[in-house]
Amino acid sequence: MPTSMPDDYYRLLHDLQAVDFVLVELTLYLDTHPTDEEAVKQFNHYSSERKKLKKQIERSYGPLQQYGNSYSATDKWNWSDGPWPWQV
Amino acid sequence: MWLYEKKLQYPVKVSTCNPMLAKFLVEQYGGADGELAAALRYLNQRYSIPDKVIGLLTDIGTEEFAHLEMIATMIYKLTKDAKPEQMKQAGLDAHYASHDSALFYHNASGVPFTTAYIAAKGDPIADLYEDIAAEEKARATYQWIIDMSDDPDLNDSLRFLREREIIHSLRFREAVEILKEERDRKVFF
């Protein structure tokens, strides 16, 4: 079911999508330019930025990934809680 | 192993319920040059391509699944509030009769998805040229859908996808050059 989420959720999600866009672009670029050290440096920088953002989102809105790549809430299994990406 | 992340690669908003646009968009869901065909094509080619480009095929193939989810989200949002009468007017009557509002992997003319869309020649250069052509065809399809769409929010997401096809095409062209260089280095006299 479509859900209405607070503005903060959309802002954080937008920030993560922006950082991830940089990472996708750098990944594909490095796949064909593997010796570009400056690009590798940028990649590692944004990779650590993404980790911070992921943690921040998950603290308020639950796990982004599963199979153990995100922590579950302690009181219950909250992976199955919405909203799913197409519902927001 | 693949990992799912509970977020879209790029935001998808639609301005109004518009099943007609959903009918066009399904071309990129289950059509010959759509995102499903692209994902399956690249991931399948990895097993017979030289090591130097396996990473690229893996990463582009994976990104195509993110695009597939964006297309699904567009179709879902464009049709979720549509009444049967609106589905009928949009030419989705046959779809509605068989699938209700469920998504189905077929093209804009209702032809079910087939693996015949997925080329795999086993020749690295032939396969990469196929991939470049696939990206250019997908780019053209996005352009034509944008030309027919009057939904500014939807067009923003479609423009993002169109740009991704351009980048993928560029990277595949670079992969061809990498393989040609490697091939030429292996010639001994």
UniProtKB/TrEMBL annotation, chain A:
Pfam families recorded? CotJB
Would you say which domain of life the source belongs to? Bacteria
According to the entry, every stretch annotated as the Protein CotJB domain falls at: 11-87
Q: Which InterPro entries has this protein been placed in?
A: CotJB_dom, Spore_coat_assembly_CotJB
This protein's name: Protein CotJB
Name the source organism.
Fictibacillus macauensis ZFHKF-1
UniProtKB/TrEMBL annotation, chain B:
Q: Report keywords, A-Z.
A: Calcium, Manganese, Metal-binding
Sites where the protein binds Mn(2+): 35, 64, 67, 135, 168
Cofactors (names): Mn(2+); Ca(2+)
Q: Which Gene3D superfamilies match?
A: 1.20.1260.10
Q: Entry's SUPFAM superfamilies?
A: Ferritin-like
In terms of superkingdom, the source organism counts as Bacteria
Q: What residue ranges are annotated as transmembrane?
A: none
The record's listing under InterPro entries reads: Ferritin-like, Ferritin-like_SF, Mn_catalase, Mn_catalase_dom
Presence of keyword Signal: no
One Pfam family hit: Mn_catalase
- Give the binding site residues for Ca(2+): 59
A GO term for molecular function: metal ion binding
What does the Swiss-Prot or TrEMBL cofactor note state? Binds 2 manganese ions per subunit. Binds 1 Ca(2+) ion per subunit.
Record family assignment: Belongs to the manganese catalase family.
Q: What is this protein called?
A: Manganese containing catalase
**Biological source species:** Fictibacillus macauensis ZFHKF-1
